[in-house]
Specification:
Blueprint (H helix, E strand, L loop, with lengths): L5 H12 L12 E2 L5 E2 L2 H14 L3 H12 L10 H16 L1 H18 L1
Antiparallel strand pairs: 1-2
Length: 115
């Protein structure tokens, strides 16, 4: 499962969560709505998700790793119930993207006019 050695664990997490060179984010200041700043979104995102991941039970960790490796669905630190929903919705979308988009647009359209 997850490597015990710290360096191996970090390298494993980096390869699993954020493939190096997959994102070409420049190092820059990004202001948040609460007055904070990010200087390195890629690293911040990795640290954030790793901290959350390590706080989970082994069962939940295994569930997340399965979702990432076998279902090709990234995890961004959501709680387990939310990630289950993300996996389900992603599967529906992959089976029929056109139909999924049409339904989603209809829901958004109805939501917009209902307010």
């Amino acid at each position: 499962m997850f490597p015990v050695d710290n360096l191996e664990a970090v390298n494993y997490w980096r390869e699993l969560m954020e493939k190096p060179n997959e994102h070409t984010e420049a190092v820059e200041w990004i202001h948040t709505k609460n007055g904070g700043e990010w200087k390195t979104p890629y690293i911040d995102r990795m640290v954030y998700t790793l901290k959350k991941f390590l706080a989970l039970s082994e069962t939940h960790q295994a569930f997340i790793i399965d979702g990432i490796e076998n279902k090709n669905t990234p995890w961004r630190g959501d709680d387990i119930d939310m990630y289950k929903m993300v996996l389900e919705e992603t599967q529906k979308m992959r089976l029929n993207p056109g139909e999924y988009k049409d339904k989603a647009f209809q829901v958004l359209k109805n939501f917009r006019f209902a307010q």
